[in-house]
Specification:
It is built from two helices and three strands; from the N terminus they run E-E-E-H-H. It has a three-stranded antiparallel sheet. Strand 1 and strand 2 form a beta hairpin. The longest helix is centred in the middle third of the chain and has 12 residues. The protein is globular and about 30 Å long.
Amino acid sequence: MSDLIPKLARRDESVRFGWCFSHGRLHHNPARCTAFWVPLAAEDEGAALVEKRRQFGDARFLDELTPEHQFQVLGR
């Protein structure tokens, strides 16, 4: 699963969608969020949610991931 974890993309205005592990929801234009989010490669909201589920399953918040998966996300 480590190949599925994206790098954090803070303040990258080109990122259209990101999953915010602090707020537990999808963000549109996530560069505006100062919390902990990861970019999702998608062209629309539906595709972004599919990508989120593919990478992170049902986890909404960081502590809902396995410890190993948390380390991969945070270790960027």
